[in-house]
Amino acid sequence: MKKSRMTERIVAGVFLLMGLVTVGCVLLITAYLVASGIPAIRQIGLVDFLFGKEWASTAAEPKYGILPFLLTSIYGTCGALVLGVPVGFLTAVYLSKMASPRVKRTMQSAVGLLAGIPSVVYGLVGMLVLVPAIRKTFGIPDGSGLLAAIVVLAVMILPSVIKMSVTALDAVPKEYEDASLALGATPAETWFRVSVPAAKSGIAASVVLGVGRAIGEAMAVMMVAGNVPNMPHSLFDSVRFLTTAVSSEMSYSSGLQQQALFSIALVLFLFILLINATLNFFLKRGND
User: Fold this and answer.
1) I need a surface site. Which of 36, 237, 263, 285 has the fewest CB within 10 A?
2) Residue 80's CB: how many other CB atoms inside 10 A?
3) How many Å apart are CA 177 and CA 192, to the nearest integer?
4) Which pairs from 225-230 meet CB under 8 Å and 24+ separation?
């Protein structure tokens, strides 16, 4: 008995230690980004930094306005969600409620494979297939731009949305659906009016993961978006995301330019925290 209690205490202590290590890593990253990013914002000016429309970090008179990057990241993430979430959600409903066990296993294996494909492969396929297709379809000089990035990001968030949504839908008690069918509801009405509302927390969590994947992606969008610091006036403009702004210049940056890149990383970090906090607020409010 004493040995069992001692084992439980040791296991609980290990779990507590791992949790503290995780929280400590987040706090260290936050402190480092704040310490590295604030000096450049003070020197450039918060308004000029956030709302400046020109980024020319290597010019004779450098300018460090990140508004083009901010808008591009927002538009790209929203566009990926608009395209990817409905497809992923409906696929999850099909796999959970309609597909045969064999089809479900096969498609879930394919979704798992899709999740394991490296970002650079998505970017390579997008650059060799999607970009020329956009150029040919719309008759534009270059297919690299915001539209190509949105399509690639939409495909990349599908595994997160599908896998978590299927898990949430499978966890809905069968009694809920049986009661709905017994009251005369059709299977489709039962799925969308009973099962989906019961699994809304898990489905919303999948969307949160999709948002994080879309905002944090760098390599794939760098290869298909053109990587030019333009304002995103149309879907066909070559643009640069917050993530690609950091990754494309960090290797040769120094001085204020390097500090400004850390400031971009800080803005991106705070942006993701704000989105997660907002979504979690509405989720808890909906559950209450």
Assistant:
1) 285
2) 27
3) 11
4) 225/72, 225/76, 225/144, 225/145, 225/146, 225/148, 225/149, 226/142, 226/144, 226/145, 229/54, 229/55, 229/56, 229/68, 229/69, 230/68
Residues 240, 228 contacting (CB under 8 angstroms):
yes
Q: How many CA atoms lie within 13 A of 138 on its CB side?
A: 18
Torsion of CA 83, 84, 87, 89, to 10 degrees: -130
Q: Is the pLDDT of residue 287 over 70?
A: no
Q: Is 186 left (phi over 0), alpha (psi -120 to 50) or beta?
A: beta
Looking at residue 68, its amino acid is P
Report pLDDT digits (tens) over 267-283.
Answer: 988 888 888 777 777 66
What pTM did the predictor assign?
0.87
170 contacts: CB under 8 Å, gap ≥ 6: 96
Cα–Cα distance list, 126 to 123, 143, 150, 235 (Å): 5, 10, 11, 16
Place of tokens 């509801």: 185
